[in-house]
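With this grant's support, we have settled on a layout for protein records. A representative record follows, to show the layout.
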Amino acid sequence: MRFKTPLERGTLIRRYKRFLADVVLADGSETTIHVPNPGAMLGLTEPGLPVWMSRSPYPKRKLPLTLEMVELADAGLVGVNTMNPNRIAELAIAEGLIPELTGYPILRREVRYDENSRIDVLLQSDPDSLQRPSAWVEIKNVHFSRTAGLAEFPDCRTERGVKHLHALERVVDAGGRAVMLFVLQRMDCTAFTTADDIDRVYGPALRQAASHGVEVLCYSCHLTPEAIRLDRALPWRPNS
């Protein structure tokens, strides 16, 4: 996924009201930017951290700058825009970079399923070929890490995330293929796990979903101020 223009660098002053942050720009001026992340962003909101922002091409937009990445001294660039993983995953699937999700010529987005839900990506076979079960793929952004090399999800309670896991279980019950794909917008991790101390429900729900037949995939990304691309698969380490 390439950004339309290279990202602009700044320095974080504070993040507040979840979706807002104040930053110092390269020219020394201060401005308010949009933060496209409803989570806690633990470890990524300290004043003084370098940040990277995209600029909207629409001059009438109230907040023209959007936070895309935070730069950590020991981890490098960390992507925080929760809107990006879907696009990153879609491009990776189209390019055959996720072996587990190859062989589906049809990709549909935001398809209604289950009880008032929309799946991030629905992969389907060609109707004229031998049918294989459609793959219902839910995608989550991961940017949280407290232990060197170990990515964690979530960084705050997520009832919506648990709802999605139960919906994927019902896909399996109906004979479909269900996939939970975690897209890690970091380059410094070698494994993935759930933060059960932060959300005591999500981790057990993910392990239950996996035992029910839901596939759990995690891929890290390579990040630069010009682009983000899916990089490599990481092992999932289920907590006991």
